[in-house]
Queue: 2 jobs
Job 1
Amino acid sequence: MNTVQRILVILSLVVLAGVVLTTMPADVLAADTGDIGQTASALFGKNLDIWFMLMLVAFLMMFIKKYEWGVALAVLLSAAGSYIAYLAIQQFVFGEEIITQAMMVRAVICSITLVIAIGVFLGTVKSWQYLMVGLLFAPVYAFVEWFMANPDIIGAAAADPGGSILVHMCAAYFGLGVAMAIRDKRAFDEPMHTTTHSVTFVWLASMLLWMLWPSFVTAGLTDSADVQLGTLTCFMAGIGSVISAYAVCMIVEKKVNPLTYTYALLAGPVAIGATMLIVDPWGALLVGLIAGAVSALCFIYLQPRLCKMIGVLDVMGVHNLHGMGGWVGVILSCVILGTFTNLFFAACVVGITLVAGAAIGLLARFTRGKMDIIMDDDPDFIKNEEPAA
Amino acid sequence: MNTVQRILVILSLVVLAGVVLTTMPADVLAADTGDIGQTASALFGKNLDIWFMLMLVAFLMMFIKKYEWGVALAVLLSAAGSYIAYLAIQQFVFGEEIITQAMMVRAVICSITLVIAIGVFLGTVKSWQYLMVGLLFAPVYAFVEWFMANPDIIGAAAADPGGSILVHMCAAYFGLGVAMAIRDKRAFDEPMHTTTHSVTFVWLASMLLWMLWPSFVTAGLTDSADVQLGTLTCFMAGIGSVISAYAVCMIVEKKVNPLTYTYALLAGPVAIGATMLIVDPWGALLVGLIAGAVSALCFIYLQPRLCKMIGVLDVMGVHNLHGMGGWVGVILSCVILGTFTNLFFAACVVGITLVAGAAIGLLARFTRGKMDIIMDDDPDFIKNEEPAA
Amino acid sequence: MNTVQRILVILSLVVLAGVVLTTMPADVLAADTGDIGQTASALFGKNLDIWFMLMLVAFLMMFIKKYEWGVALAVLLSAAGSYIAYLAIQQFVFGEEIITQAMMVRAVICSITLVIAIGVFLGTVKSWQYLMVGLLFAPVYAFVEWFMANPDIIGAAAADPGGSILVHMCAAYFGLGVAMAIRDKRAFDEPMHTTTHSVTFVWLASMLLWMLWPSFVTAGLTDSADVQLGTLTCFMAGIGSVISAYAVCMIVEKKVNPLTYTYALLAGPVAIGATMLIVDPWGALLVGLIAGAVSALCFIYLQPRLCKMIGVLDVMGVHNLHGMGGWVGVILSCVILGTFTNLFFAACVVGITLVAGAAIGLLARFTRGKMDIIMDDDPDFIKNEEPAA
């Protein structure tokens, strides 16, 4: 596929987007469900589902055979650090006496944001440092959360019910900030050998994340009809990116790179975060089609260029899924709502998290000591492998 | 084990079934649960659970090491195509303005039916064709769904609350129809090498499908007491087939074939679909015992003969689990209810889906072009395998 | 690390525990959630979640490559036997006419207890014997359950809402009883070779068990505020053991043994069973810190000594997680409540289950016949492995 064809594919997607978005119905589908809103029972299930997703993010990143267990450990430690620090902030800084299911949901969303973020610099710090980064990330996240919900700054709060900005862009740019501060160029040369089954774990994680996503985007809603609409638009956006990421891989590279596809098929759910309540199901399908295509194209074209430019490797390609997926959500929500509010907040969040990430990354760099081998389980784990036959 | 012994085993199961079924209590156990029925919140959870099951069906079929990722891709694309086509039919043909949680549940059940069906002809069409088959399957399914719920045809609708006919038989015979039209005999000669871990993924999928099954069979119920009874009878039937499939494998083959057992242990939940609200827990246990034994026996004896007869390989043995499990449910429901209604609908569904499958299969055959290698990831995927030491 | 340092680590943990426990608030955090308690819908979800956990326990034990599938089969058969026997006892002995969601939850908790227990003697009996042990275990469990809930014995029932004694200690000591009766010393010499991916399945199981745990500990509660508090304290205890088990592994062994860590990180949730409603979140964090450290230390120091002493190998290290985790819960609950009630019940349960386990173990020993190979899939399964290149 030559450059002209590539540009044609991208242009046709943009034109398609423009046509459909401008004809999208202003009032969206939502029925009275006869339900009493989000009960504590319903939130209990979503609380666990989001923890489920947090654990699955580990398996999404466990494709490098020599570095599987260390990823799991890194996820557990960064989740642990950020969860307790977030709750401590709520109790002892904001003075919340009671920690409700809703508060627990906010805490695990803070943790999953960090777990996504560590994908950028995974394997380039020592295992105990994930705990440290977790403790330090929580105040940054709590500040961003407060900032985005604050209507006094530019007259309106961000319109981001499903976390396109708060979770995904925050994760991508915080991670990039840390990576740029650590600046370990050895990651570029690391052989990332996979096995059939190590990649099968990634398929498992991606497919289960995909189906759990409605729990994540609807967990903050209080109206039952919104939950219904958000569930539907999340699934439709997911279907959109399942299709378009496949199409882009096949058109551009003739074959599917499973480590591009299993990530890019989640771009629809990422982008729907900012748009889930302002599109109908067919609009959501389009959001997903666009996001999946953009994310797959970024894996193929943007990632090598961007990483070269900033001088560090985005190990797991976090920016292609969460960063770019977030931007798609932000831009589409601005188009549909006819306001630049989300764009303003997105730009601020990028700035805040890059700076905060760089600061925490510098601390990680100066405390990590000597690290002879990177992205490898060997320094951390005792093994009892089957001897070669 | 010789032929006489085999016949004795089968006969004793049939006699046991006859004795117990005729003594089964007519009125079944169901308590007022003090609940307000199936709320949208409860359906939200079941909606996700059925998507969970849909994804797990992929892993149930991922035992061939050289063809793991292609199975996942096939599942995603066929689900995507059928889901959007089913919702489009509901909105634009049947004029449903609002897509509720209940409607979303019906849509994902349509998709999981197709995902089961593709197991018959998996690996014998090109990857983009799963999307095409998905788009074409949805109208067939929507017609069968309407047909079975229609009380005007023979004076009564089918009694199939948990989908023995609508999902499982529909899947098995639609898949067989497609396979017979494609008629790729190379599947018989394909070496289906597994690894310990590829089969372990199948165990994972089977065991999680087993425990999620009550969400699937109770998702269409509106009465809380029915949900309770359906949960119980589904688990009891599942336990029945866990036990009887093991016994049959051990008695007939002396050892357990994991690819027979992990499938046949789900036959109880398949067969309970038509009988879940007309048996008590111990009757459900018996339904499961019979279904598990029948399914395991079909994997061992029927599959080689049937495939030779029809000239195509049922790649994943779909007919042994879903086809035969469905028949067990249909026959037992007719015996218990004393009516041939379900038998009539089952026969019609077999006919409709065989013909529709054959038609769509012919289209797939003429559009698939040249396909040098079948049941293999190589043509579709970029690999970065660990080099041999 | 020398012996002095080891003792210092342990002592400092004990002192920390003493200081914080005596300053723990007596009244704990619980808000009125405006919910109508545990509805049948909410229990439906927890019922399935606990079955999910039961299946995951299989994968927690599937790290020995030559013995993966047999573990799954053993789990299925022992769950099947115990579930139907428990329900039969409830219906035909205790005369329960209706089996509610709550009763189903109690039944699956009986089954998961046995599934934990078989980890002690896994691979040393024949596959059909797991079914037999299941049928025989249910009456033992039903008796223990009745015994612990009986306030007439010493004037108060056990205070164990989350099953530290009823599930975990019962499992550990029943399993030890069986193992001591079977007395197969060959287990000590068995090479337990793992692979990277077999251990990755253990990570998957451990991480998902961790996040599902609140469903397990709150399933027996009827008050919505208690459910909320139990969810929070369970997660906080889990975070505690994620951190302390890591710290102990790193301090004592310099590297993390994944088969120690993936188990010990669950010790907090085990120990919180008896204390979940009498601590605040920070107390729960401490409970988890202590339990994770104790469990990891037991894997490293106690297991080899204990197994030598009693002359049998605890194959999966059940006692280190469930036995010792249970003791931590019991002792801390006695300290906080200022009563020896739980200690009394724990001691009785240890005695009852050791004796019952030994009796059932003797039966298993005399019925198992000749067993040439132990802890191996070969005698039970047909394989179709990929030939070596």
Job 2
Amino acid sequence: MKKFENKKIAFLGPRGTFTEEALLSAVAVKEENLVPYATVYDVIKAIDKSEVKNGIVPIENSIEGSVNATLDVLTFEANNLLIEREIIVPIRHRLIVKPGVGLKDITTVVSHPQAVAQCRKYLAKNLPGIEILAANSTADAVRKVAEANHQSAAIGTELAAKLYGLKVLKEDIEDFKDNKTRFVLLGKEPAKRTGKDKTSIVVFIYEDRPGSLLQILQEFAYRYINLTKIQSRPTKKGLGNYCFWIDMEGHVEDEVVSSAIKCLKCKFRVVKVLGSYPAAKK
Amino acid sequence: MKKFENKKIAFLGPRGTFTEEALLSAVAVKEENLVPYATVYDVIKAIDKSEVKNGIVPIENSIEGSVNATLDVLTFEANNLLIEREIIVPIRHRLIVKPGVGLKDITTVVSHPQAVAQCRKYLAKNLPGIEILAANSTADAVRKVAEANHQSAAIGTELAAKLYGLKVLKEDIEDFKDNKTRFVLLGKEPAKRTGKDKTSIVVFIYEDRPGSLLQILQEFAYRYINLTKIQSRPTKKGLGNYCFWIDMEGHVEDEVVSSAIKCLKCKFRVVKVLGSYPAAKK
């Protein structure tokens, strides 16, 4: 008897988010295997319980920086999960309206506060003083516009416009053109070494020990390991208590990487390894 | 003739935000001198143009980490502005309803997505599956509940509940009890040296020069200067290009601090000094 293979992939929903768009741009997945979840926490729990095989969440944006919710859930709540792959895609914001609606008809703009912030200059120039309504996600904003009686516009993805039968009135309304987001595909299987890999770890330091970050960095400098990201995050135990999320070039099976991690484990409270995976082109 | 003294203070509004609550807890200010602005950017522009004498914005939370909007505006948009003071206050989330409404009557919860995220466990236990609506701020959420026809609840401040004539149904619904936010009071006058001071700077590194952060940290370690915060921020020029926000113990008039800054200015592209100010008690 053929073993049932779970091909489901969880993503940060609802349908039509940048996360779904990123997933579809990189992975061949059938519509019936796409499962939206409301939060990053729900995505990783779904993988944990094997409701899905993989899950995809955003981890870093070139304008906004780290996605703190993702770093925190992976740091504090994920067990036995690994980053299997990274996916980097350009973020292009669209002004989305009902068919027939023009720029002059718009009375309200709806979107996630972060998307609104990324289009501040466009809005100030083209829709000055417009009323801004908050939504839980860009996809949710598009849904709201589709259901609204008045003539509002959403800032969202092309995918969401398509899903809700709306029209893209204006493309690329983001203030900064080099706007990219890095997503990570999570699962339970370690990715194979390719020779062009990255490794993600979190180092928990002892409280009130000045110079900890310097000591961490020295372990890597000494071995000529290049760091591609370092992000302090509060441990939620008071202002000034941190752990450090670190992405480096190399694979845990590389001798220098494994020896750096071994030495960090000797010196610091906890080192959590979140996996090695092929490096994406920027 | 007596010179007109501008005593106005800008804050991140609308009325009833945590920022206004923090300001009132630390500074004696008359109601007519309180001026709400919609964004951190508007607050600093108001100080710049001398519409107000000072302005207050949130910079860091013990759960969420840095307030990126504030770091970015101060890094990229503020000229000749200084941090004159820091104010640290506990963040206590309240469930706010119209008088007469009980927990069982609530059909919707409204708040800023970050406040909702900080009360996730409380909501899951006490209002499972409740519909969540996004608002642009906690204060805006309280206003929405005051104006709504249906029986909704906001997550917000005691001050906002008072301003809109609503009732605090439940206090301290935040998941983590050690939830504090650090605010900074901005202005144009350097604060006097007290002997217990902090200094904030931003160091811009040259692109693609590995080991930059290590070199920065060594300047401080060598002089026994304790860092209280270090935060990388994207320069908005592509993934992987960073500058570093650094808070340290000491005053720019201390010899070790001024010499560390001088050496950083020799080595790196730009060093922006955002002021020295008395350290608040945590």
